[in-house]
């Protein structure tokens, strides 16, 4: 039997960070991955493919230049599914190569196969050819991630009714598309396809969307989507989804309306990939969505030497936070000191346009009874915005009136997912509105919006020096 200090199941962001962290501290580490190549959902079907697809769509459609040249401007007139896939394969190959090299130079072993528990320190690994091996780990880190939620009532066929994994293999770009689920995945893909001129309708049983984002930002975002003719049918349920002889799909909604479309993307959440792990063998149980419960500081499950990190432990289910969780879990597992992650992490939604946020929303400020002031800047007020032809884009800062500290940064528009880190740094370093007022920003940049929003709030908050 193979013997290791740490055995990691899954090679996504949580697994790979955990494995490399333990190896850096001189431990013998094995990663077991059932997929053909290492990288997890993040590299093969989630983060990287969707963001590559977005970038390709924006480049080929000339989206970023339309502010100058009009809505009919295109870099490539006929964009095919093959155009989108070509760039995807190149990016994924690079990602996998980098990861394999990281494993090799850090002496992390990796084995291809499906892992399941024999007991709390022993895993059985079934390889593709059916061969079964057993491996032993003093500690085990479960970083198995999630898979798309695929209810029986949805007639998936991988061509016209698909989940977000299957969307990456489509042969033709649809002219019309219905997206079921206005969560992050649904909204990202809906807006990417809309940028490619697919007529998109989004439906969701909830009457609101992206509830964890500041309401003013969601309102601005929603206005932009409707302005380009996307249909948002919120508070609406698809009661029946059926394939028609014509090759199209018909949806019957709960209000009696029918929609006929070329393609349906079902993006209504994901399930923890725990079903194959034989958890009963170690007395562990997953919840109804396949997720595992852990101590949020140590990522330890109720079995002391078994840890879980990443999407399998639930919110926030991001590649970025999964990496941190994996690193912390591995440190605890091998007895190294581990600090809790920073309280405020950024959330980036790579829709078209991007949304990014860090800290408290205005709604949360009200709920907590914190007296506050907001500062707003629109990208069209910045010189960089003029140069880029932007007529949309909004940055909102929220400050405590008592401490003058920045407590929330919320952005919708070009570059939001990069820009947010300035606000995140100020927030986590406990900076105040004076940071934005007193510091000089590069000019012309979109980051100048921080200065404008800071001054906007400061003008209403009064000068601290005169109050002292
Ligand atoms: C469409 C989409 C877009 C996304 N976009 C973003 C984004 O822009 N930014 C962001 O931060 N996050 C994004 N995410 C979320 C991000 O992909 C996840 O948070 C991240 O992949 C979770 O990492 P993980 O380590 O938990 O596991 P995963 O990346 O889910 O990997 C788990 C791995 O474990 C393997 N595995 C499972 N069971 C076994 C077993 N029994 N034996 C062996 N191997 C096993 C699986 O094959 C898989 O490779 C997106 C997700 C999706 C689906
Ligand atoms: N940019 C990013 O960081 C990013 C991108 C994509 C995904 N992710 C992560 O992936 C996870 C999964 O995303 P998601 O969008 O699939 O899930 P989600 O849970 O965020 O959203 C699911 C949506 O589907 C709706 N829904 C639920 N059940 C339904 C049903 N039976 N029929 C119709 N609609 C239904 C819900 O009302 C909700 O709006 C998220 O937690 C997210 O953190 C992150």
Automatic annotation (TrEMBL):
Source domain of life: Bacteria
Residues annotated as domain FAD/NAD(P)-binding: 4-326
Cofactor, how bound (note): Binds 1 FAD per subunit.
Cofactor(s), by name: FAD
GO biological process: 2-oxoglutarate metabolic process
Similarity comment: Belongs to the class-I pyridine nucleotide-disulfide oxidoreductase family.
PANTHER family noted in UniProt: DISULFIDE OXIDOREDUCTASE, SOLUBLE PYRIDINE NUCLEOTIDE TRANSHYDROGENASE
Name of the featured protein: Soluble pyridine nucleotide transhydrogenase
Species of origin: Rhizobium aethiopicum
Lineage: Bacteria, Pseudomonadati, Pseudomonadota, Alphaproteobacteria, Hyphomicrobiales
């Amino acid at each position: 039997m193979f013997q290791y200090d740490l055995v990691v199941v899954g090679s996504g962001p949580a697994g790979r960070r955990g494995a490399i962290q333990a190896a850096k501290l001189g431990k013998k580490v094995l990663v077991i991955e059932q997929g053909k190549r290492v990288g997890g959902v993040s590299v093969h079907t989630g983060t990287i493919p969707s963001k590559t697809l977005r970038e390709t769509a924006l480049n080929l459609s000339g989206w970023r230049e339309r502010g100058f040249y009009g809505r009919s401007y295109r870099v490539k007139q006929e964009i095919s599914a093959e155009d989108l896939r070509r760039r995807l394969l190149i990016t994924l190959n690079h990602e996998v190569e980098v990861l394999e090299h990281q494993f090799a130079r850090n002496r992390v072993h990796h084995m291809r196969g499906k892992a399941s528990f024999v007991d709390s320190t022993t895993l059985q690994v079934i390889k593709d050819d059916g061969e079964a091996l057993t491996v032993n780990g003093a500690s085990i880190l479960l970083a198995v991630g999630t898979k798309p939620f695929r209810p029986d009532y949805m007639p998936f066929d991988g061509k016209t009714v698909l989940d977000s994994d299957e969307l990456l293999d489509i042969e033709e770009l649809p002219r019309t598309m219905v997206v079921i689920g206005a969560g992050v995945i649904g909204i990202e893909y809906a807006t990417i396809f809309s940028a490619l001129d697919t007529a998109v309708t989004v439906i969701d049983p909830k009457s609101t969307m992206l509830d964890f984002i500041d309401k003013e930002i969601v309102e601005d975002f929603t206005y932009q989507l409707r302005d380009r003719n996307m249909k948002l049918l919120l508070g609406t349920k698809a009661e029946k989804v059926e394939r028609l002889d014509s090759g199209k799909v018909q949806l019957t909604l709960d209000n009696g309306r029918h929609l006929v479309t070329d393609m349906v993307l079902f993006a209504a959440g994901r399930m923890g990939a725990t079903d194959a792990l034989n958890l009963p063998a170690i007395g562990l149980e997953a919840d109804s969505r396949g997720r595992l419960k852990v101590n949020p500081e140590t990522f330890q499950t109720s079995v002391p030497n078994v840890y879980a990190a990443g999407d399998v432990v639930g919110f926030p289910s991001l590649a970025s936070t999964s990496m941190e969780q994996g690193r912390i879990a591995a440190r605890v597992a091998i007895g190294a000191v581990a600090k809790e992650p920073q309280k405020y992490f950024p959330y980036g939604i790579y829709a078209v346009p991007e949304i990014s946020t860090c800290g408290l929303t205005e709604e949360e400020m009200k709920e907590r009874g914190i007296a506050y002031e907001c500062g707003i800047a629109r990208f069209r007020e910045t010189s960089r915005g003029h140069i880029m032809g932007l007529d949309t884009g909004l940055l909102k800062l929220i400050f405590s009136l008592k401490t003058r500290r920045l407590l929330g940064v919320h952005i919708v528009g070009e570059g939001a997912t990069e820009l947010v880190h300035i606000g995140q740094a100020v927030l986590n370093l406990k900076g105040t509105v004076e940071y934005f007022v007193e510091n000089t920003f590069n000019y012309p940049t979109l980051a100048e919006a921080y200065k404008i929003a800071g001054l906007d709030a400061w003008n209403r908050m009064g000068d601290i020096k005169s109050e002292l």
